[in-house]
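> call design_seq(struct)
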């Protein structure tokens, strides 16, 4: 018996086709999987095997890589990262996150792997203008995702270690930077560069043949242009060309936003959490639990109301309350600011993937909301 209602699956296609026909999207690939069923739909100028920039969806993949090393006892969740990242030893913390850089106090403790995975490492995207944000600009701790080409990993760590933290480790959820630190940690702990480590320990075991930090010349015919809407007119403008930033290996492979991938590769990753294909059941349960306190959610500085019905695990958002068709408690996943989304829902045995070329923020994105709404109404 099918896990989907056939005529309702057509609504997924119609929802995306409407956005392509209106010019909002150049194209879209959608994928829904439950049990042994996989339904893929393609609209516009793309194909099933088109390669997309998945930007922040890199974060959960890197987090899964970290849990591989935790299971092997190479890393431990609550050990200081300074064993492998001495540049970050003895951190100091700003007395006022918006204040001058020379007014600091010693950190209460060192940064741990758990801090990186839960974005409570003390530095990240801090709202507003401040001296620390200006000082961190060279390190790309904020802003639209693009490969880091100006600094090597070692240079980046040295500069990061020279900056004070915005908050005490373990106390405040601050987006993004923890994943780039995590990428450096994975490389040093494994003794390999980040891409080799992920290729051997995550991509290879799961059969993710098109996931990488750049697109080789032989696959560029399957790559697409990335677009960013103009803030004034809404018209799409080219953000990255096919032969642009992702057409060559980066100097700094970003575990925060650097990967490219395909719908089928992301299906393999999403389903791995249901079948324990990569990690043990205990690790999956830990990774997809909500690790934030109510106060940390309230002070996150993320989109207003974002954490009202969500928490944060290790590199993934976790739904904690149903107040929408597609928000099932226990559902987890993450999205990419360049127009992509993935979620796994254990209660429904569902994996969903949306890949587009239009940069957007999911909570404000009509294609995002329409895809997930039509995906859940299609379930039998």
């Amino acid at each position: 018996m099918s896990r989907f209602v056939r005529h309702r699956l057509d609504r997924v296609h119609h929802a995306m086709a409407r956005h392509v026909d209106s010019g909002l999207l150049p194209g879209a690939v959608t994928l829904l999987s439950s049990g042994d069923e996989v339904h893929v739909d393609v609209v516009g100028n793309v194909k099933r095997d088109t390669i997309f920039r998945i930007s922040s969806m890199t974060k959960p993949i890197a987090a899964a890589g970290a849990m591989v090393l935790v299971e092997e006892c190479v890393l431990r969740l609550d050990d200081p990262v300074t064993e492998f990242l001495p540049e970050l030893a003895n951190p100091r913390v700003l007395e006022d996150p918006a204040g001058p850089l020379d007014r600091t106090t010693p950190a209460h403790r060192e940064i741990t792997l758990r801090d990186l995975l839960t974005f409570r490492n003390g530095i990240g995207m801090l709202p507003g203008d401040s001296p620390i944000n200006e000082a961190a600009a060279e390190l790309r701790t904020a802003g639209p995702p693009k490969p880091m080409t100006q600094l090597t990993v070692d240079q980046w760590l040295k500069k990061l270690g020279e900056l004070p933290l915005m908050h005490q480790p373990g106390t405040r959820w601050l987006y993004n930077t923890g994943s780039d630190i995590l990428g450096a940690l994975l490389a040093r702990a494994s003794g390999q560069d980040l891409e080799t480590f992920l290729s051997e320990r995550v991509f290879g075991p799961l059969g993710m043949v098109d996931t990488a930090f750049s697109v080789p010349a032989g696959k560029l015919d399957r790559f697409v242009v990335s677009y960013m809407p103009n803030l004034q007119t809404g018209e799409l403008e080219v953000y990255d060309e096919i032969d642009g930033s992702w057409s060559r290996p980066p100097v700094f492979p970003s575990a925060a936003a650097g990967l490219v991938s395909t719908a089928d590769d992301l299906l393999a990753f999403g389903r791995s959490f249901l079948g324990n294909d990569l990690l043990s059941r205990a690790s999956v349960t830990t990774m997809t639990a909500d690790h934030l306190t109510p106060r940390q959610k309230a002070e996150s500085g993320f989109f207003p109301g974002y954490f009202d019905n969500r928490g944060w695990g290790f590199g993934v958002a976790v739904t904690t309350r149903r107040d929408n068709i597609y928000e099932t408690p226990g559902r987890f996943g993450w999205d990419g600011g360049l127009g992509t989304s993935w979620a796994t829902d254990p209660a429904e045995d569902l994996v969903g993937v949306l890949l587009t070329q239009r940069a957007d923020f999911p909570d404000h994105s009509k294609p995002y909301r329409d895809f997930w709404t039509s995906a859940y109404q299609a379930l039998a």
